[in-house]
Amino acid sequence: MKETAYLFQTTLIIGWWIGLASSDLFFVAFQFPGIGAIAFWSFVAPDIVVIALFSLIRAYKASRALELIVLGGFSYGTLYCICASCLTGGGYLSSTLMTVGVSFNLLTCFDKQLFRTSSANSVFFNGFKTLVQLICIWAIALVIIPGVIMDAFGQIEFPKLSVNTLLGIGLFVLCSMLGVYSASVMVLRGNGTPLPLDQTSQLVTSGPYLFVRNPMAIAGIGQGLSISLFFLSPPILIYSILGAISWNWIVRPIEERDMISRFGAAYKNYQDNVDCWIPNFWKSKG
pTM for this one? Predict the structure, then answer.
């Protein structure tokens, strides 16, 4: 699981620098006002060696030290970008994506510490916490990050009403309803919340979970795709696809490992009979 995460990270970093070198539009989108190109390119060697190369080595050789070095390198770069954004009033895409990157490395480094069962037995309290979680996560993943991406690429203008905008609105509403319904079932049947730090104490296999294992992930990815459709934005489409890849090959295995450790054979049976991505509405599965 960690091997895939670090290999994926290496690929993204190298691809990012190739994009900067090959496209002026891509390069400009990540710049800080008043900071020259030479200062920006001075980060090539540190990025490639400390983050990309060490991530590649970690992908094939287990090493806690390498994980912490990569996390430290990412943290330094993130703080630099945030400070640069505060001083220059720009470069928000760089700062945002670096913050996402350091969060990704924190998840990778401390994956076992991120799973805790909710201690609250109140449906009302768990419901309130879930509502707060949804608002915060949706605000960050569906408003702030897409807004920063589109602003950096000059696509922030609100589109005129058209077929794609109507389809985008319809898909977004449907996916949001699925997300809310799935979260409510987690609260009512699982005695917890959807967040791994405050997760359910009971295995949930009813509601939408009867037909597909990860309806909330499907809802979230669908919301991202609906935004890309609404704005006809290739960068948001890429953002959504990368999010789906990250969740399926990196986050999902971590979650499933935790589920197996907590629920054992019950979850294995559920996993064997219910698909992760493709709902089956035609027959009941155990």
Answer: 0.92
